[in-house]
C-alpha cells in the first residue's frame, strides 16, 4: 500500500490523459466523461455497460461478414469498490474458458479506479457477502482518503502504465487505514446471513413462498438491468441481405426469455421467473463459478418499483 499527499486525482488524471485515456466519472445516474472529481455519487447504473454494452454490434454483413468491430478505446472508469468486485465476477463469465473477444478488448484497454466508501448506503450489504468497502479487489487503482492522506493500491497493470511518485505506507499509516475501514463497516444497516443459504434454497425450491414474494413484482427487469453482475443477452439480426448482428441485454424476468420455439415456456409464471433470479445468483452461479453473483450494492432494492427486497426475501427463505 502507498501514500500520496497532495491532489492525487489531478496527478492521476493528468497522467492518464497524457497516455490517451478517456476518463469516466459517476454522476449519480450514470457516468459522464470528465477530468475533475468534486463529489463522488455512486451511479444508479453500474459500470458493466463499459464492458458489456446494453446494445453492441458484433458483425456487419452483406454477401459475407464485412466487419467485426472491436472497441479498443482507452478508458479509465471511476467506480465504487462493489462495482469493481462486480467486474471480476463478469470476468468469470466472459474470460474463463471460452473468451469473448469483444469483452476482452474493452477489459484490456480499461483501467478500473475504485474509491473507498466513507459510509454504507441505506441499501448496501456488501459486508454480509464477505466484502469490504475498503477492498481493492477488481481495481487497477484503489484510493481511500484517510485524515487528509490518500492511500493507494495499484495492480500490476496500473504500475506498468502510471508513473506517479508514491511512498510506502508505514505501520502507523496502515493502522489508521484499518481503523477507518472498521468505522465504515460499523455503518451498515442491512445484514444478510449467508450461512447455510444454499441449503435453504435447495430445500425451498417448491415453496409457495415464491408466489407470495412475487405478488407485487411487475416484471420490469430493472433489478437485472441495474445489477453489476447480471449478464444475460439476446442476439438479433437487423437487415436481411445487408445489415448487422448485435447483442442486447435480456432479463430472466421477461416472459419471452425462456419461451421455446415449440411455444412451451418452462418459466411461464411470474413467480417462477422471480425465483430464478434468486437461485441463479445465490445457488447456480455458486455451483458453476464458485462465487455468489451478488456484490451487495443494493441497487435492486432501492430502484425496485414494487419494493421487492433481496435481503428480506433471502432472510425469510426457510423460516
UniProtKB/TrEMBL annotation:
GO terms for molecular function: iron-sulfur cluster binding; oxidoreductase activity. SUPFAM superfamilies: alpha-helical ferredoxin. Residues 206-238, 282-316 form the 4Fe-4S ferredoxin-type domain. It comes from the Archaea. Pfam families: Fer4_22. Coiled coil: none annotated. InterPro entries: 4Fe4S_Fe-S-bd, 4Fe4S_Fe_S_CS, Helical_ferredxn. PANTHER family: ANAEROBIC SULFITE REDUCTASE SUBUNIT A. This is 4Fe-4S ferredoxin-type domain-containing protein. It comes from Archaeoglobus sulfaticallidus PM70-1.
